[in-house]
């Protein structure tokens, strides 16, 4: 019996691809409303991806270490096209996923749904008692229901299921219908006809009480009760792909991604390998990573005797970044992965690092490796740091905002001011007031620095986060 059980448990195992051949992400979906949306995807079984890169129309816009990314600042209604790649531990990138295009950025209106039914419906791993059905989603999150099984409908939020409890040498027609969450169009099913393999009639009863027993950022534990009459083993499926087998009544599914939801199916197997109907259970991995990445590829370039430009890369989601000096003290913050640090001393060597403030309240990453930079010689004096930066007006018709600030007394006289967005100078003005025309319905993080007659800058003001006003469509 032990040899027979081992043979059963070896069926349908996942074979990892060779190193450097990560498959492209699949099953892209877009959900959300207004100017924010969630792009999500699935990474096929195999070698685990270290990170993912999201592209809009071929231009990289963000990175993450899990299978979703928050899209912000979408502005007014326009059609956007996204692809995603997977990156392995050596930094090698997969090919791009199939693109997904959606109209996004209509205030209060969900992304446009696609009326098309699931495509590419196919049957595989057909046995005398079970079949795997897979399909390509239309990009709209929601629930897909498979009907036609003798034991009733099977529902999933993925793009594949394992249907068990079938009779041998029998023809079945399955209907796959997607019910999107963005609104309720008339569903259009796809169909496939399958004939099971010959074999002996009879399958075990399904396991009972399937539950998620806990997990980490990369694992989920599952447990269940044996069916009446017992079972020789159990198989666990994720979107129709077998990810675990066991002779016991529990298992741990590994190699998952943090802050991600998974729907697993657990089926009982008899001594001949026949499968019961599968029982579904959903679990979510821990939001915070046990070992989040740290910022990498930090570079520093001296722009003047008072300022340095910094840039870096970060694979995970971050709400902002803190720039640290050689003592570990914070000397600046940034909303993105480029910034200008100003108000520095002339002819001075600096050792700088960057730490990320992680999304979802997951704390701060380990700081990056240090980068050394020396400012060129120049006068010692600097203007005082501008204060009380604020938005005093905004035009919802044009997206023009007016900013004001004050220049505290002391220091070198300021002859002009530079308004920054990260490392980008948006405007230079000779007064403590400026009007900027910015993309409507977007969030902007701005600072201002005072400039003296020699072109040397003060430290930048405290950052100001504003929402550019807009007139919603009727």
TrEMBL record:
SUPFAM superfamilies in the record: Fibronectin type III
Coiled-coil ranges per UniProt: none
Positions with biased composition (Low complexity): 141-156
Region annotation Disordered: where it falls in the sequence: 136-160
Signal sequence segment: 1-18
Protein keywords: Carbohydrate metabolism, Glycosidase, Hydrolase, Polysaccharide degradation, Repeat, Signal
One Pfam family from the record: fn3
Domain Fibronectin type-III: 117-199, 206-288, 294-378
Name of the protein described by the UniProt record: Fibronectin type-III domain-containing protein
Organism (species): Phytohabitans aurantiacus
